[in-house]
Design brief:
Layout lengths: L1 H13 L2 E7 L5 H9 L13 E7 L2 E7 L14 H9 L10 E7 L6 H12 L9 E6 L3
Parallel strand pairs: 1-3, 1-4, 4-5
Antiparallel strand pairs: 2-3
Amino acid sequence: MANSKLSEWTGLCASHLKIVLLGGRNSGKNSLGNLILAKEEFVTKERTSCSRRLGVVTGRWVTVVDTPGWWCDFTAEDTSPLVKREITASLCLCSPGPHVFLITVKASSFFSERRRRSVEEHVSLLGEGVWSHCIVVFTFAD
């Protein structure tokens, strides 16, 4: 029994990890992606499309998808349709789906109720089940 559990764990660890980065503009998504992949893969600049990078981290394949950022005080309704479309398209870049969504929040900024609602609305564009796969990461970068 213990061997089958160990084998199951080993198989899980050897699998390909797929991560999607979500967050407002200048919230540290690029820096977090670079930190995860242990190399400078993501360039800090405003973009309107997703960016996917692949690397091997401690012997495991990792795909990181960076999504375009939204204005932190904007509701999803106020956000450009192109940005919203790219956020949802991020799922296609890590088929059959990501293991985790990392939500970046800039630690040096005041996290108001308005910003909380903005994060909630933008992340919810990915569907109801997304929240069980989310981790919030507080950053000081970008």
